[in-house]
Amino acid sequence: MIKKLLNEIIKNLKVMFRNKTSLSLLIIAPLIFILLVGYAFSNEDISGAKIGVISEEEIDLTPLSNNLKDYGVIIKYSTLEECQSDLILQKIHLCIGLENINLIEKSKIENFEDIPTGKVTFYYDNTRKKVSLGLIKTIKEIFGLTSEQISIETTETIIENIQSLVGFLNERKQEINEIKNESIQIKIQLIERKEKLEIIRDNFMPQYLLVKDLQNKLHNYSSNFDNSTNDLLILINDLTNNLEEFQDNSLYNESLDYFIGDIESQLSSLSVLLNSTTSQKDMIITTIDDIIISLDNIKIALDEEIAINEEYINKIDQSVEKVDELSQELDNKLNQLSGLSPDVAKKLVKPILYNYNELLENSTNIQLSFPQLLVIIIMFLTLLFSNVSTLTEIHNKAHLRNLIAPVNDILYIVGMLITSLIIILLQINILFVVAQIKLNILITPIFFKIILITILLIIPFILLGMIFAYLSKTVQSSILITTFVALLFFLFSNALFPIEIMPSFARIISNLNPLVIGEYLIKEVQLFNMPLNYLIPQISLIIVYIFILFLILIIVSKNKNKKER
Amino acid sequence: MTISLKIDKISKSFKNNQILKEINLEGKSSEIIGLIGPSGCGKSTLLKILVGYYKPNSGSILINNKKISKNIINLRKIVGYTTQENSFYEKLTIMENMRYYSNLYGIHYNQQTQIINNILEKVELLRHKKTLTENISGGMKRRLDFAISLIHNPSILILDEPTTGLDPLLVDQFWNIVKNIMLKENKIVIISSHIITEIEKYCTKVAIMKDGHIVKILNKNEIKSLEKKFRKITK
Fold first, then answer.
1. Shortest Cα distance, chain A CAs vs residue B80, angstroms
2. Chain A: nearest CA to B180, how far in angstroms?
3. Are B92 and A403 an interchain contact pair (Cβ–Cβ within 8 Å)?
4. pTM of the model
């Protein structure tokens, strides 16, 4: 069986390679294709773009032209309609409306005043969304510092000012602390003074009370004395009056007169003495009262002094407490503010920072697109090649003789499958060589893995191409069906739009698309050098496809042969 | 070793179109059986059943009195088929075509060269064996097709209009080769042709077909004036 299979494959290869047109296409086509693709995708940035700028005012577009000179040329329009008309005719790639704009060359932007300001409106052709958006992105970058950048820089300045303020407040806080310490010192002195005053008052009070008591007593004595003196004076007066009457009535008794006179003189002296004593007593009382008044004043002064001290101490306490609170608050605020640094500016303007880290840095467009390109090439090449090869074989006059040879028909199917696989692999290997040498796409380090994946991808497409060849009645219909199916695979893949934007059912179908699975496998292997054991589910699915398609092919070919027979 | 062939009530239809209706025919070693009939009478269909290309709807083929039509692979092993249109690969050389088919028929590689050279010598193509078949003449192509049908030394050889398109000289050359090989090797030859004269000249038995039936079988001594008889029968 193996010999017969080998015989079949060798025959197929000879037949294919002896057709000069086929041979040249087999080898040259992938070569030309990859070189053209490599050339077409060699640029990383947009170039040769034509950008319409709409401005009714006379505006100097030189700065914008200079900024954009690497990407394209500026064409000036006075109205939006004119610009849009050319956009529709694809004479230009983009229209830009400028309002109140000040343009300055990117290289000449030195400070905030130089930053371009105003309103820029982009009018783009969404049928050419990719190129339009790519161009818009480039132009936005060219306009230099964006509003976001401006905000960040402004905020950085504000924060720098806040930092200076924090420094200033820290210095003032030091002074506040010094004042607080001085207040505490004063308070301590006041407390000491108050304590001394209290001691003085404590020492003074017993004597003061004693003197007060004495005063009261003196006042009582004085009052009693005054009463007694009055009584006595009245008595003396009465007595004197009585004596005078007695004298008048005694008829001038000399001795009596003498005695009376002596008594009257003594009474008069007593009266004088009493008056004098009363005056002296009053003087004493007055003096004592004055002393008491002085003592009272001293006491009041002491009490007031102590109370004032107390009040000052309390006030100082309150002030110190308030200063402490303020100081604490200031500390908190300063702590909060001290966390601010110009680096925070970005956080303030953009609370969430978006960092875009590419998985594959420094990769060119062609390197990144290679997996998708490869699977598309494999699909179209394989489907059409296997279809045409199978059609050529089953429509070959020799096919009749093959069918009457004593071998199982599966031999021809397997033979064609392996032949197609060899040819496509040869083409893909040519493509790999060119990709490695010309486009710096790394193939050699992952050669065996990528070859395995490529084989797994090629086989289902070969089987499909063969199935269509067996199913179709004519060569034309077969090629048409194959092309149509290839287009379906292409459309239900990531080639035009991401499958994530498709409706859910279409997405499910697309996820089962061998083109999508193949792209994933090639991408994982070629770009990320993923070990194959991580890709077992996808590889298994492809193997299942191969198994199912092989069964279908056998059934279809048997039916075809049966019908013919 | 002699061989006998019996076609027993073979019928074949495609969809609702019955092509062959209970065909009976017998043959034995060294017989050259001519199959003639108007276009569409079912000659090629019958031949393709004999080579194992079509399966009959009913009836059987017996080789040496053994029913073989059910084991089609065995039938293919003993039948050689020279096709109406040269059935080989134009992009292969004569030798490569011969090798390809000898491999398909399971001929051991060591024997291939000798067998192929012998056949090619007989059909006078040996010196051209390295020539691409797309570059050889029409007569050579017919001989090559014939040579391929001999590669597995079949006991029964089916020739489906083998001389169509050949000039009379080449027809004679072709038939000389056929006769030389076949008669020496005790094979049964069944030939379908529109050329009544060559049937009359080279066949030992003639079956005349009409509308899917064999309407007349003529033996060697009945073949003379074949064209007249054919016209009469198929009128």
1. 9
2. 24
3. no
4. 0.68
B89 touches A: beta carbon within 8 Å: yes
Distance CA A33, CA A448 (A): 23
- Number of residues written out for chain A: 565
Single out the residue of B64, B35, B75 nearest to residue B162, CA to CA.
B35
Q: Residue B20: helix, strand or coil by DSSP?
A: strand
**Confidence class of residue A550 from pLDDT cuts 50, 70 and 90?**
very high
How far is residue A132's CA from residue A94's CA, in Å, rounded to a whole number? 7
Q: What is the mean pLDDT of residues A117-126?
A: 80
Tens digit of pLDDT for each residue in B43-81?
Answer: 888 888 888 888 888 888 888 888 875 677 888 888 899
**B48–A15 CB contact, under 8 Å:** no
Task: Name every residue whose Cβ is closer than 8 Å to that of residue A463 and which is 6 or more positions away in sequence.
Answer: A386, A417, A546, A549, A550, A552, A553
pLDDT of A164-190, one tens digit each?
888 888 888 888 888 888 888 988 998
Contact A397 B87 (CB under 8 A): yes
- Give the pLDDT score at A130: 72
Type of residue at A500: E
Helix residue ranges per DSSP H, A395-528 = 398-403, 410-439, 447-471, 475-491, 504-511, 514-522
CB count in 10 Å sphere of residue A269? 11
- Amino acid A145: pLDDT: 47
Q: How far is A513 from chain B (nearest CA, A)?
A: 37
What is the rounded CA–CA span in Å between residue B19 and residue B24?
A: 14
Tokens representing residue A260 in the block: 């009376």
Contacts of residue B83 in chain A, CB cutoff 8 Å?
Answer: 397, 400-401
Which of A289, A241, A297, A299 is CA-nearest to residue A268?
A: A241
| ipTM for the whole complex | 0.88
Longest dimension (CA), chain A: 210
Residues near B46 by beta carbon (within 8 Å), at least 6 away in sequence:
B7, B10, B12, B20, B23, B35, B192, B209
CA distance A66 to A108: 11
pLDDT digits (tens, 9 = 90+) for A52-77: 888 766 667 777 777 777 778 888 88
Q: What is the 3-state secondary structure (H, E, C) of A96-111?
A: EEEECCCCCCHHHCCC
Percent of chain A with pLDDT over 90: 12
Shortest alpha-carbon distance between residue A400 and chain B (Å) = 7
- Best probe of the A interface among B13, B53, B89, by most A CBs < 10 A, is B89
Specify which of A205-219, A485-499, B100-114 reaches the highest per-range mean pLDDT.
Answer: B100-114
Place of tokens 């009836």: B59
Q: Is B44 helix (H, G, I), strand (E, B) or coil?
A: helix
